[in-house]
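Q: Could you fold this chain for me?
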Amino acid sequence: MENNRQQNPLETPTLRRAAEDDDEVMKMQELEDEQLLLIN
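A: Sure. Below is the predicted structure, expressed as structure tokens.
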């Protein structure tokens, strides 16, 4: 496991968490866009 982490520095918990947060933000924005379309 340690070897994997050293070979793949991008796969750190922090970056993985940031990517997940980005996905959440995208989902929220898509939901808001859909709600705006329904209102108009």
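A (continued): Residues 13-39 form the longest helix (27 residues).
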